[in-house]
Amino acid sequence: MRNLPTGTVSFLFSDIEGSTELLQRLGDTAYGEVLTEHHRLMRGALEEEDGVEVGTQGDAFFVAFPRAWNAVSAAMAAQQAFAAHAWPEGVTINVRMGLHTGEPTIDETGYVGLDVHRGARLCSAAHGGQILLSERTYAMTLGALSEGAGVKDLGDHRLKDLVRPEHIFQLVIEGLPSDFPPLRSLEILKHNLPSLQLTSFIGREREIAETTRLLTTARLLTLMGSGGSGKTRLALQVAGDLVDTFPQGVWLVELASLSDPDLVPQTVASVFGVREVPGRTRLDTLVEYFRPRELLLVLDNCEHLVEACGHLAATLLRGCSKLRILATSREPLGAAGEVTYRLPPLSSPDSRRRLARQQLMEFEAVRLFVERALQSNPAFALTDTNAPAVAHICHQLDGIPLAIELAAARVNVLSVEQIAQRLDDRFRLLSRGARTGLPQHQTLRATVDWSYELLTEPERVLFQRLSAFSGGFMLDAVEAVCAGDGIPIDDILDLLARLVDKSLVIAETLNGDVRYRMLETIRQYSRERLTASDEADTVRRRHLEWFVRLAERAEPELHGPEQITWLDRLETEHDNLRAALDVSKTPEGGAEAVARLAGAVHRFWALRGHLREGREWFKAISAGSASLPAGVRAKALYAAGTLAFDQGDYAQAATLCEAGLTAYRASGEAAGIALSLNVLGMVARNRGDYARASTLLEESLALSRSSGQRWALAEALNILGVTARRQGDYARATALCEESLLLWREQGDKWGLAASLGHLAVVARFQGEYERALALHEESLALRKELGDRRYIAAALASLGVVARHLGDYDRASTLLDESLALSRELGDRPSIVATLCSLGFVAHRQGDDTRASEILRESLGLARELGDKLNSAAALCNLGFVACRQSHYEQAAAQYGESLKLYRELGDAMGLADCLVGLASLIATRSSPELAVQLLGGAEALREARSVRLPPSDRTDYERSVVAIRALLSEDAFARAWAQGRAMPLDEVIQLGASAGALPMTEEVRH
Predict the structure, then answer these.
(1) 392 near 415, Cβ under 8 Å?
(2) How far apart are alpha carbons 280 and 518 in whole angstroms?
(3) What is the end-to-end Cα distance of the chain in Å, rounded?
(4) Cα separation of 393 and 348, whole Å?
(5) What's the pLDDT score for residue 928?
(6) CA distance 613 to 791
(7) Closest listed residue to residue 338, CA positions, set 213, 219, 211, 216
(8) Structure confidence at residue 1 (pLDDT)
(9) Were 314 and a residue from 335, 340, 910, 967 both cysteine, which residue would form a disulfide, CB within 3.0 to 4.6 Å?
(10) Secondary structure of 272-300 in the HEC alphabet?
(11) Is 60 helix (H, G, I), strand (E, B) or coil?
């Protein structure tokens, strides 16, 4: 006993598996000889490593070692000696071993305590030839294993008579067997699933719940998805959660590294230790093994062995009623009763929306990126600054977990902004994965290569050609673009279905139709394959031709009852339109087709708020426009001009539409002439040149009536109605807009209908009919929302805000105007930004926040001047005058009123003129001649009466307060005389009086 190691001791227990059977088969003498050799080899290994033999009984050894690595080395040496020894013919010695480290107690009998029992139970749980290590022994030998040795994690197990479970590891020795059946333990977790998840499982709560639900009824469930979508991780997570549900456990069979389909049954058998029986197939023995057992079998990575896995699953399920199978594959196994569940990408943000970092963390893809980035660079943090780049990365990588993890791993050498910029070459950027991963999962390219290599040649050809599409495609488009040159059109549907089955194409139902798409990562790979082929130019040309035909078919429908349907269809196909237009940037071009396409969809761009983008495409087209056919060129010039006008670029709009008008006049195309005249008339109107505007618009109206194009006539009437309203002729404005409204209703054109309703609402507002204005604006807004017309949704919201201001509901007005301004800024719609800022500034003034009001109005004025927008410049200046007066900045107020008065006079805007005159009256009331102030008030009242412009209720209180204050400065007779004089003055005299009165010097009382 005095030679036994003390303190921390490592125990080795061993015995021969099946020794009783061996004794019976060999007899006492032969078995005794085998046992002697066993003892000799065992003791040789023990003595070499300072092992002390505590007890030996029959074929069992109990040995103590002073150090854990000595025990491990002795176990290795003994197993190697047993394997190398020449045993008698027909004799195989399989020795099982268990190693545990602890601090046992020594008494007169030797070692006592739980550590002794734990080591013995480890040995009992092992199979012949297997060496098991307790967690403590494993920990104490980390880094000390000799060459040719490794460790496999077997997870937590409960050993007989021991309360605390043991985390068990298996010692793996090069050249010796390493795969054994499940341990002979009272398992807490009956499985062979990986126990140590080095990375956490992000998101997928919905998918976990759905997979678990499906497994309650489906006996074969196949998780499907593209490479890197996380099928294996989901399967392992679900399987781990279900371990306690299956009495005989959950068992994983990894097939990725297997290349021979005939070896599938053997691979399954090796996991369970099912040995081959002479005269019976391996599959038969598996059926017999599984028949009484209730367990879940997980078949991972089946896509390259689909037929073999399908046959295996069908055979097992047919003969084993208690068995369930969960498979992962990029396509169905094809077995009877199979249920498939296609794994969607992780939820990811739309990079076009700017979200705060807290909002971004609600998306699974972002959470995954952030966690993996922290593992790569602990200093990483998601901030408001880098949040847009992270959103862009997750969106561009389609929420594919593998791609996101690879991108996140790069934060140790690149900023997220740099990663986002390099995503166009993502297959080079994302080129390093975990070294321990499967080869086909180590890089993004290898993952997609793995899928591509499994395709047949026709499937590969179609896969490449599909990359011409962007954002999705319909079957008829695929047949037009991809058929031919080796692929008959009748084969397209079948080939496309196969690519869907193989998770390279996604099929979705949209408005009752099936639409297909490729994840952008898959499409980029496919595009590389197409570019490397000799048919890239042909496929892209066909793609352009198809979408030119679609756009030209859609163009007339954008004026009729199917307007919304076609707007939605063009929105759905917008990425394809962009891809087709992109041909203009290639050397071979296709200038005429591209110009036809842009000309056909310009109204879609205008109605759906894609103004900036549409103008950029026309700029790209303009380089080769001189060589275009006259009609195509004229239309492109007009279309580009309309978009320029809608963005407030009046100079460019005039230049383009003048050139378009010249081209249209040369061809004699009346409709084109009328449309060009409309835009030129609106430019003149917005610049305050009403004489030129009226001339142009009246010519357009006459041409539209004679051309028979009723939508063009409705548009001309509408534009002329707005011009009449701007000049204060509300009766004519109403008549023109109502005639336009009837034509729009007749044609079912909801956009035109909304426009006319909105213009009639503005006329009603100017006439003080606020309830009618509200109703008309609400009707217009509902149509705008139905159309998805974001630019005019913003305009309708702003108009409602203005009406709310006139009704004195400043909180609602501010809310509506803020919403409108945010949308206009998002769209880059500068004219709308100007008008909304002006209204919002006046509301802030009414709410008593003159500092904010002044800031807002100055921004509006600056932008209006940039645009040459006289109307909104005048409004901003008038409102700035009100604010300056309240802040006692009188010289500044006088200058602003004077400039505003001049602009309103040019524009003939009665409401604006009256507002300016009232403001000037308040300003000069305390100057040297209050009689002048009263004359201005009388002139303003006469102007309103002449133009049927009533004072808004929201302004009435302030107006009456100003009149009372000014009245107090004069006698009743003097006030009445001055009021009458003002009412009798011609308008120009009143305006001149106001301008000169604003320039009068202040009295000392006012100055101080």
Answers:
(1) no
(2) 46
(3) 112
(4) 9
(5) 55
(6) 14
(7) 219
(8) 47
(9) 335
(10) HCCCCCCCCCHHHHHHHHHCCCCCEEEEE
(11) strand
Quick one: pLDDT at residue 116?
92
**How many whole angstroms separate alpha carbon 24 and alpha carbon 943?**
125
DSSP letter at 487 equals: B
Q: Is residue 325 part of a domain?
A: yes
Whether residues 56 and 135 share a domain: the answer is: yes
DSSP 732-780: HHHHHHHHHHHHHHHHT-HHHHHHHHHHHHHHHHHTT-HHHHHHHHHHH
* Pairing between β-strand 60-65 and β-strand 9-16 as defined by DSSP bridges: antiparallel
Note whether 9 and 102 are within 8 A (CB). yes
Helix (H) or strand (E) segment spanning residue 326: strand 324-329
Give buried/exposed letters for 922-932 (b at 16+ CB in 10 A, else e).
bbbbbbeebbb
Shared domain for 369 and 338, answered yes or no, is no
pLDDT of residue 1008: 29
Give the structural domain span for 872.
791-887
Domain of residue 796, CATH code: 1.25.40.10
Alpha-helical segments (H) within 68-157: 68-84, 114-125, 135-140
Question: Do 507 and 543 belong to one domain?
Answer: no
Residue 195 falls inside a structural domain: no
Using an 8 Å Cβ cutoff, are 834 and 649 in contact? no
Question: Rounded distance, CA 35 to CA 24, Å?
Answer: 13
Residue 311 sits in a domain whose CATH number is 3.40.50.300
* Among candidate residues 743, 758, 662, the one with its CA nearest the CA of residue 701: 743
Query: Do residue 521 and residue 549 come from a single domain?
Result: no
And the tokens for 594? Answer: 């591209």
Distance, in Å, from the CA atom of 566 to the CA atom of 558, rounded to the nearest integer, reads 7
Domain identity same for 517 and 465: yes
- What are the tokens at 394? 């997750």
Tokens of 482: 């991809």
CATH number at residue 83: 3.30.70.1230
- Domain shared by 14 and 158, yes or no: yes
Q: What is the DSSP string of 653-666?
A: HHHHHHHHHHHHHH
Residues 226, 522 contacting (CB under 8 angstroms): yes
Low-confidence ranges of the chain (pLDDT < 50): 1, 189, 196-198, 433-442, 1000-1008
Domain final residue pick, 310, 342, 374? 342
Instruction: Clarify whether residues 867 and 914 are in a common domain.
Output: no
Domain assignment present for residue 640? The answer is: no
Output the CA torsion 580→585→588→593 (10° steps): 40
Integer Cα distance of 919 and 780 in angstroms: 33
Residue with tokens 């509300």: 730
- Contact between 518 and 471 under an 8 Å Cβ cutoff? The reply is no
pLDDT tens-digit readout, 126-137: 999 999 999 889
Cα distance between residue 716 and residue 681, in whole Å: 10
* DSSP assignments along 842-861, one per residue: HHHHHTT-HHHHHHHHHHHH
Structure tokens at 361: 């963390």
Number of domains in the chain: 7
Whether pTM > 0.90 for this model: the answer is no
Same structural domain, 265 and 140 = no
Contact 223, 341 (CB under 8 A): yes
| Structure confidence at residue 358 (pLDDT) | 81
In a domain, 901, yes or no: no
3-state secondary structure of 508: strand
Element (H, E) at 5: none
Dig out the tokens for 756 from the structure: 């006319």
Distances (CA, A) of 892 to 195, 323, 895, 914, 920: 77, 88, 5, 20, 12
